[in-house]
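Attaching the record inline, Q. Sequence:
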Amino acid sequence: MLKRNVFTDVLVKRLVRANRIPAVHSPLIPPLHELGRRESGEALNAFERTESASVGFWEMPLAKAALFMLFVALTLSAQAAAREVGAIGLTVGDLDRELMFYTNTLPFELVSISEASGREQNALLGLSNVKLRLAILRLGDERITLTEHVGSKGRPIPPDSKSYDLWFQHIAIVVRDMDKAYEQLRQHKVKHISTGPQTLPAWNKGAAGIKAFYFRDPEDHVLEIIFFPPGKGDPRWQTPGMNIFLGIDHTAIVVSDTDKSLAFYRDALGLRVAGESENYGVEQEHLNQVFGARLRITALRAEKGPGIEFLEYISPPGGRALPENAKANDLIFWHTDLLADEINGLASRLHDRGTRFVTAPSVRLRGDSSEPLDRVMLRDPDGHALELIRRADPALSSVVTPGNRLSNR
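Structure, as predicted:
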């Protein structure tokens, strides 16, 4: 995931070539790309414990400083990466109606409801006079947020939205039994996108045997239920139990160019590629109601949390871009929380590379303030929104409450 600094590598090699030092990764020291925040101190001690008397390398102050700088640079780079995918947020028009759907038709558990307003919310969302009602819901270990803009309602989801439009996003809800889950949705008369549950064919090795079904909530947000056969998906989805609906495996977004999105999510944000496939055929057409659909699918993961899945439509062409005037109170505005140990440097690098920010411009985005950023909202290359959140304590990183999600400082 992490890229070594070429200049520093060359410097170190020149300093140590004459001494022929052994490989840095002794049995005491794990590879640098595997080091986390907590292991950094132990690793530095391990460097000093490594037997090097025969080499005499540590007696060279400049060489020792160079290796130390390399270690620190790689460790800071790891800390700046997104360490966890947190809650997935939907903007809703009527919070009460949506809560009824998610806690009755679907078995999400209501965690909290709160209100938020003020300058911090205005700046974060790039709007004025923001007044919000927020609900946090949980299914298994994963969470979603439903945000209603009370003061200024946005536009509904376009009625002609297609699964290959670039504003498309959904959450994939894992089920233990597809037939039982689908029957429950049918009894509640959900709005179908798929003609019915689809089983991906055996020839598709990456996805063979996976069952899926697309549908809509009352405000036309797209949702998916998905079943993983043994050997597919996260092993925890195979844990015995009685619940039919288990949790959220990933959020899927349509992208225009997988390589461009990888440069953003993998190279800039630090997520890793967890799987790839190419889906097409009659099952895929019935799944997302797109005739001739052929998709390049790429799954990414952080250290914790649900995945982010790219859907690049090889065919058909013609998916519409996110409208330039789309705002955070429009119902097509989803956002995904990404948690990192520090976000000042990350936000600064993204700002410098031309990333679009939802959050109102601030000198703090340019990284020239010593005050640590708590959160900032930005857009990926296709306009999907992400909220970068600084983890105050990694042990508490999964607990995202309205109080720490939108600060009223």
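The radius of gyration is 23 Å. The first strand starts at residue 82 and ends at 92.

More tomorrow.
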